[in-house]
Design goal:
Number of helices: 5
Structural class: alpha+beta
Helix content: 55-70%
Strand order of the largest sheet: 4-3-2-1-5
Strand content: 5-15%
Radius of gyration: 25 Å
Oligomer: single chain
Number of strands: 5
């Protein structure tokens, strides 16, 4: 194949891509609008969910977690609508299969982080959890006031004013003394 022929093929392909982009432009604009709406709606839904759940649940960490789940679900719904508009369902299915395989490999690589996450879920949802935000605890060589419990780590403020971030996995492995009981 000579250079002029190859150049002609490349230019034809670029022109075809340009025509396809022009044909997709209305759908892309609608998709961008739906994404912006889904993003705004997800923040509002999360805030409303936290406000309503906060009246019924005393567990602040659980209320925050359920607010985040609400936000994720609204965004997921928006993504599904966008994929339908762009007619990308089959491409996404193939992509999700590949992501699943990569996810398994990453799962093995990120076992420690997953362990912290699972421990965090247990700390947030257990009725008999060893401490809550505001409690004075001692675990390992750390002692102070629990300021935040999230899914990865627990934040403690020592009596000298320092903030210590303790991985939740470590809290489950070490003994915890709760002075607030």
């Amino acid at each position: 194949m000579e250079l002029p022929e190859a150049l002609s093929l490349v230019l034809d392909k670029v022109q075809e891509w340009g025509r396809q982009a022009i044909l997709l432009m209305p759908n892309l604009m609608v998709s961008l609008i739906i994404f912006a709406l889904a993003l705004a709606l997800s923040f509002m839904a999360s805030r409303v969910a936290r406000r309503i759940l906060g009246k019924f649940l005393s567990n602040v960490a659980l209320v925050r977690f359920l607010g985040a789940v609400t936000r994720f679900l609204v965004l997921l719904l928006g993504l599904i609508v966008i994929l339908n508009i762009l007619q990308l369902q089959s491409a996404v299915l193939s992509l999700l299969t590949g992501v699943g395989i990569v996810g398994i490999a990453l799962g093995f690589a990120l076992q420690d982080m997953a362990s912290n996450f699972i421990s965090g879920v247990a700390l947030v949802f257990r009725d008999d959890r060893p401490f809550k935000v505001g409690d004075i605890i001692e675990t390992g060589e750390n002692h102070g006031i629990v300021r935040e419990i999230n899914l990865r780590a627990t934040t403690m403020q020592t009596f000298s004013g320092q903030y210590v971030f303790i991985p939740n996995k470590q809290i489950f492995q070490d003994a915890v003394i709760n002075y607030s009981f």
